[in-house]
């Protein structure tokens, strides 16, 4: 087993990849530890070297920089692994926030793990968690979805998958796509879901816009979205509790279905899975008992099982 060590910044571990979180707007969020580490590493691999150079110059640092981004990660990864093997300590930073979170880094970490090289994380802000914390929506369970796929078909398929998501969802979205995304959500029956938009978080004009998906779509009919956004969207469990008569995807066959159908289906599936039934058997039995659609109950049962397996680990 590879163990990742946590050592003080003054004794940076050699041959270690160090993931460093940087501010998502407010430079006051730079921690002392982040600064100490950036000052001591042999090399900083940056998503955008120009941007990171600005940060370093703000800190009065002159560490060597190299680029590591979406388009060079295969070849650059090999190079960095070699440098790590030779004992260099390398920091990886993205443009803003945590590396690997909708940003480059995940592949390099996996390569280090495969090469038995240590990985250290110096945490910093992440827009997803910042928005979730301030959303006012349920935070006990959430699903980070990052950016929706750009391809139209894949995007629709992903949103259809999310109709059945039990947990609060956190999505990143570009300002020029926000209106369209809200309309797509409405078309798929998310209009009454509660949503919080975290805009320009930690920056001068930061704000949370809260309401229903429909309400915020109406607002943006006459206002242009500007700045960076995180979408935090109510999941089906909270919806079922809040609006017992709202139609959802897990209805009885022939009818549209309500969240109370959904909540009842969730309870029943949990019970059947708890009795040791397979996902397939539980979905079949739930369909017989409720008259709901087997494929939808199957998808729901898979999610319940995944969540419960995650919790037991
Ligand atoms: N790795 C970053 C993190 O940990 O938050 C996320 C990088 S991702 C490429 C950029 C997206 O994050 C933006 O399109 C936006 O959705 C979100 N984001 C980043 N900074 C933000 C901010 N200050 N306020 C709101 N959203 C932000």
Structure description:
The structure is a single chain. Helix 10 packs across helix 11 and helix 10 crosses helix 12. A five-stranded parallel sheet has the order 3-2-4-1-5, with helices on both faces. A five-stranded mixed sheet has the order 6-7-10-8-9, sandwiched between helices. The chain is an alpha/beta fold and 313 residues long. It has twelve helices and ten strands. Helix content is 44%, strand content 15%. The chain binds S-adenosylmethionine. S-adenosylmethionine binds next to helix 5, strand 7 and strand 10.
Could you list some keywords that capture this structure?
313 residues; disordered N terminus; alpha/beta; 12 helices; Cobalt-precorrin-4 Transmethylase, domain 1; binds S-adenosylmethionine; five-stranded parallel β-sheet; five-stranded mixed β-sheet
H/E element string? EHEHEHEHEHEHEHEEHEHHHH
Given the structure, what is the number of helices?
12
Largest sheet: 5 strands, parallel
**Could you tell me which ligands this complex binds, including any ions or cofactors?**
S-adenosylmethionine
Helix content: 40-55%
Shape, principal axes of CA atoms:
globular
The fraction of residues in strands falls at 15-25%
* CATH architecture name of the largest domain: 3-Layer(aba) Sandwich
- The CATH superfamily of the largest domain is Tetrapyrrole methylase, N-terminal domain
Q: In terms of per-residue confidence, which ranges show pLDDT below 50 for 5 or more consecutive residues?
A: 1-10
Distance between the termini: 18 Å
Radius of gyration, whole Å: 23 Å
- Per the CATH scheme, the topology name of the largest domain is Cobalt-precorrin-4 Transmethylase, domain 1
Rounded mean pLDDT score? 90
Strand order in space, largest sheet? 3-2-4-1-5
């Amino acid at each position: 087993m590879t163990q990742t060590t946590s050592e003080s910044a003054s004794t940076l571990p050699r041959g270690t990849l160090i993931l460093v979180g940087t501010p998502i707007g407010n430079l006051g969020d730079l921690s002392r530890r982040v600064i100490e580490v950036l000052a001591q590493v042999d090399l900083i691999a940056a998503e955008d070297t120009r941007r990171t150079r600005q940060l370093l110059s703000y800190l009065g640092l002159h560490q060597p920089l190299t680029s590591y981004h979406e388009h060079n990660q295969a070849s650059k990864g090999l190079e960095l692994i070699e440098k790590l093997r030779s004992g260099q300590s390398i920091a990886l930073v993205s443009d803003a926030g945590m590396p690997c979170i909708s940003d480059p880094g995940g592949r390099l970490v996996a390569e280090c793990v495969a090469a038995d090289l240590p990985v250290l994380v110096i945490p910093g802000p992440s827009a997803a968690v910042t928005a979730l914390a301030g959303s006012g929506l349920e935070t006990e369970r959430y699903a980070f979805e990052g950016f929706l796929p750009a391809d139209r078909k894949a995007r629709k398929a992903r949103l259809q998958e999310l109709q059945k998501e039990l947990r609060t969802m956190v999505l990143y979205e570009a300002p020029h796509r926000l209106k369209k995304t809200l309309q797509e959500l409405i078309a798929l029956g998310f209009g009454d879901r509660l949503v919080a938009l975290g805009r320009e978080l930690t920056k001068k004009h930061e704000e949370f816009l809260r309401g229903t998906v429909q309400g915020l779509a109406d607002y943006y009919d006459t206002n242009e979205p500007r700045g960076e956004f995180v979408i935090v969207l109510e999941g089906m469990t909270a919806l079922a509790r809040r609006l017992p008569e709202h139609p959802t995807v897990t209805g009885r066959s022939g009818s549209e279905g309500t969240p109370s159908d959904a909540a009842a289906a969730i309870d029943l599936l949990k019970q059947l899975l708890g009795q040791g039934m397979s996902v397939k058997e539980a979905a079949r039995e739930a369909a017989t008992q409720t008259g709901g659609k087997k494929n939808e109950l199957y998808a729901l049962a898979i999610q319940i099982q995944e969540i419960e397996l995650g919790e037991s680990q």
